[in-house]
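To: structure desk
From: M.T.
Subject: fold request, one chain
Message: Could you run this one when you get a chance? Sequence is below, nothing fancy, just the single chain.
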Amino acid sequence: MSSIIHMPWIGRELEVIGSFDPTYLGRKGLVIEETQRTLIINEEGRNICLPKQEINFKIDCEDIVIKGSFVLQRSEDRIHRKYRG
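Reply: Done. Structure tokens follow.
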């Protein structure tokens, strides 16, 4: 598993590349907050709340696609958790 999972995401660029809800597809912005179930990004001056459960995304244009449902925990817990690849 990529080390991007274990890094803080606040201040990094996020791009939604897959979603059950088509209105989330293609959203791109700077992560300004992370909770257990949501990511809040700033997209062109507007804050957008993205439910982790419904999106697949990339951080900082990495080649790794992160399934939001796979990281449903607080950032403090996600950073220290061990993942199996």
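Reply (cont.): The beta strands are 13-19, 28-34, 38-43, 46-51, 55-59, 66-67. Let me know if you need anything else for the meeting.
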